[in-house]
Amino acid sequence: MKLEDLGWDDHFRTQFSNQETEQGVLPARVSQGHRGGFYSVLCEEGEFLAEMSGRMQHAAKDGGGLPAVGDWVTIRTYKEKNRAIIHGLLERKNSLSRKGVSGRKSEIQGKITEQILAANIDTCFLINALDNDFSVRRIERYLTTVYNSGITPVVVLNKTDLVPDPEEYLDQINKVIFGVSVIPVCGLTNSGILDLSAHIQAGKTIVFIGSSGVGKSTIINRLFGMERQRVNPVRESDQKGRHTTTSRELMLLSEGGIVIDTPGMREFQPWMVEEEIEEAFNDIEELSLDCKFRNCTHESEPGCAVQEAIKAGKLDPDRYCNYTRMRREARFIEERTNLGTQQTERKRWKAITKLQKQIKKDW
Fold it and tell me: In this structure, are 159 and 251 located in the same domain?
């Protein structure tokens, strides 16, 4: 197994070479996280079950400081036990994150936590089913996060066999989403899978996200040409899916390319600041420049260009509602965390670098 097959490139090669690591320390990529603080990692020597060193565990104060699926880490292997110790975490190119899921421990000392879905991604397949799951507004939410993470999005409309005319759904998307590839497929019949494969390249990482029951596992099985992922049927009464994938997992396609499967998400609250929301809805921001008042809230003020555009049919009112809702969510996250500044991120990577230097000194 070559590191390049796992997505290794100059971004990580430079970091690793600059660390001047001791002999026996290798780069590896996290393929899966397990309970109890264990990880499956892939490297040139194979696959190992790994855990963080004591120093690294102590330094990781929150979820953002822990390895995530797709991360590159430095390890020392113990082949006789098929185990490894993780000593360092290389800086990510990007990550796909959301606000911690409601109902779980999503707050630490009064601060909302970031849940990293996957790291170091090139392309994101946004899977939507042409049944009761279909929602242009949800696609907008996904796209907003993907765009601001520096990841190339591809919208995948699965289960085309359930509707007489899939083009109607493409028209709905094209009215509000521009410059994004939209691919209709049917995982059951293999229709459109070749079009999807055209977006897969050797050494590049693709993450699949979507609600439960949209057919992510079925599509992945088609790409692998075998039953790689377990599949559960949806309920006929409401077309709701059951979680087939229960944890995030990184897998290698035999013909090249890296796939990260994620569990179905019942809710998706983007982890971003308000300014990023505004950039994603730049059509609304451009309209706001013509508002009579600079601090217009676009609700009831006279001379509001946004409200005038809605009345004239130039702006979808549902798109505007989604915009305002996401702005409120982003503002709430900013108020409860340090996400609005880059200081937290700089401190975290400084702590990681300091830890790695200390480990080198101790060795």
Answer: yes
Are the beta carbons of 97 and 63 closer than 8 angstroms? no
How many residues are listed for the chain in this entry?
Answer: 363
Q: What is the token pair recorded at 169?
A: 């759904």
Predicted confidence (pLDDT) per residue in 71-95, tens digit: 999 999 998 889 999 998 999 999 9
CA 71 to chain centre: 12
Task: Write down the H helix ranges in 86-206.
Answer: 136-148, 167-174, 193-197
| Cα dihedral: 8, 155, 200, 29 (round 10) | 30
Residue 293 included in any domain = yes
Q: How far apart are CA 259 and CA 245, in angstroms?
A: 13
Domain check: are 164 and 54 in the same one? Answer: no
Mean of the per-residue pLDDT values of the chain: 81
Is residue 242 located within the same domain as residue 318?
no
Assess whether 148 and 86 both reside in one domain: no
Tally Cβ neighbours within 10 Å of residue 177.
16
Residue type at 224 in one-letter notation: F
Question: Rounded CA gap, 183 and 222, in Å?
Answer: 15
Report the DSSP beta bridge partners of residue 6: none
Same-domain check for residues 53 and 128:
no
Half-sphere exposure (CA, 13 Å, Cβ side) for 337? Answer: 27
Regions of the chain with pLDDT less than 50: 63-64, 101-109, 234-243, 340
C-alpha atoms less than 13 angstroms from C-alpha of 258 in its C-beta half-sphere? 27
Give the domain CATH number at 201: 3.40.50.300
Q: Could you tell me the CATH number of the domain that includes residue 43? A: 2.40.50.140
CA distances from 247 to 33, 39, 102, 141, 145 (A): 8, 12, 17, 22, 20
What's the DSSP call for residue 206? E
